[in-house]
Amino acid sequence: MVEGHRIILHPVVASLPRPEIVKEEMFDNGESRPENNSKSKKGRISREELYANVEEITSLSWVFVLLSLLSSVVAAIGILQNNVAVIIGAMVIAPLLGPNVAFSLATTLGDIDLAKRALKANMTGILTVLSFAAVVGYMLKVDPDIPELISRTKVSLGDIILAMAAGSAAALSLTTGVPSALIGVMVAVALLPPLVVFGMLLGQGEWQLAMGAMLLVLTNLICINLSGVLTFLAQGIRPRKYRDADRAKKATQIAIVLWTFLLILLVVLIILSQNGWNVHF
Description:
About 70% of the residues lie in helices and about 0% in strands. It is mainly α and about 280 residues long.
């Protein structure tokens, strides 16, 4: 990049005449040329587009806070009424996709500044949802036997698979340019309802059930970030500058080891509790 200059990328909607499909050029030994094969192999948008998209969905603003609050209001109503349709509506407006995907990307690239902003946005959203839910639990009578509530106080291997799939789908949607609205709902499935349940049970004073919901939230956060990092690596996301490569590699290795260790620990706790051991959270 030349100092004092800026490159602005505009999306191309269409071209006339239609571009012809270019066949892969081959070396004499039959191998394809790498410069013509990289885009088809990766099937992803450019690093600059990726950063621009992440900046857009990670910005901490009053809109982000308001959407977090509104989604927690709708989710709390849906859980208290045991209404699945209302809970799904809360997931649609929950802005939880951006910060989690951005944190995975920051880990992959070793971008400390992006990691700080993603963590700040994520914590703001989580605390907003948790605070409102705790107030609801304190002011209203919460029946712990509501099916939509009690189902979010236990962790199973299916929850781990769901969260891993959500994190991977979120990273793929970002790198391939696929609309992320529906993927955001999938991430919200793993995070919003258990977070609201955790807050309401805390406000109600149901400590044992609240710890179960908290464990589910932590499990989902770990799985989403772990699968997000692995997906970005599989997509070939790397720093552009060579001097940043070592830092990114170390950050990625530390993150993968940490997330994997915590995930294994959670799986052990789940298996022990399912086999009748008295595991208290």
